[in-house]
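User: For my dataset I need records formatted as: sequence, then structure tokens, nothing else. Please produce one.
Assistant:
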Amino acid sequence: MHRPAAFAALGLIALAVASADARPMRVMADLPEAAGGRYLASLSSPAIKPNSDIPRKYVDVSPPLAWKPVPGAASYVVIVEDIDAGDKAAGVPFLHWLAWNIPYNATSLPEGASGKPGAKFVEGRNGAGKIGYFGPHPPPGRAHRYQFQILAISNVVNLPAGASRRDVLKAIRGQAVGHGGFVGFYANPR
């Protein structure tokens, strides 16, 4: 399957959500506070190479993720979205995972980190309405693109488990000190 080079550069993929005042709020490289002169967190996964297929096992369990530490980060936020699904009219992709208050000194999350008792981070409500990771479930047909993102922020987020993507992005607005990410593909085998 051909993987367009345009998807290799995370900054070329613009994702938008409606903020509380109905104006779009951008994430990742489109956030002014996360662009130019800031730090790159170099998000990667030992199980998923950028612009390649996501192994089937990650339909049921969150994949391992790793990043380089970002100077000035007080915590990290991880967002995983299907950019080929969701509310296209509003520019909101389908949310598969939202985790925040990942400790500033962490540089990875192990496979299956989502939903583990005693986790040192907080998880939000995914697009399926559940708290934690919801793996790829595209309809049969062409592969969907899944964007794995990390934001290094200068504070911790004071929101309870189950908070929405919109609430978390609103809470961290202006706090990003770095970012990183990659795209993986998944096609429903049925």
